[in-house]
Amino acid sequence: MPYQRYLNVAQLRELTLGMEADLGLGGLSQNEKDVLYAVISVIASKPVSNSVAKSDEIKSHFLVQNITQPTFHRSLKNLVARNIIAHAPNTKAGSYVIPSEQSEKT
Fold first, then answer.
1. Which of 20, 37, 46, 55 is an S-S bond match for 25, by CB 3.0 to 4.6 Å?
2. Residue 54's beta-bridge partner residues?
3. By the 8 A CB rule, do 35 and 72 touch?
4. What's this model's pTM, rounded to 2 decimal places?
């Protein structure tokens, strides 16, 4: 079947959309989802004792490299407003964490 490789991607996309809906992420824009996934990926790549994602680390992540600066910052702001991510306590601006309430849901 020549379309098999596309079918696999289509099925993966359906699974992803279903998981996003289950997690309450269905209302986010694609840019917001990509920024969120970049934040999570940056945090996951660090030791547990340093679970903070800095803005420059997030911006350099593959998922968000092509998002314009204003859209990137607007997405961060919207994610903070929805309490999906939060400003890291006791840090300078531009540092983000996943609120404990969110990490307990996952």
1. 20
2. 95
3. yes
4. 0.86
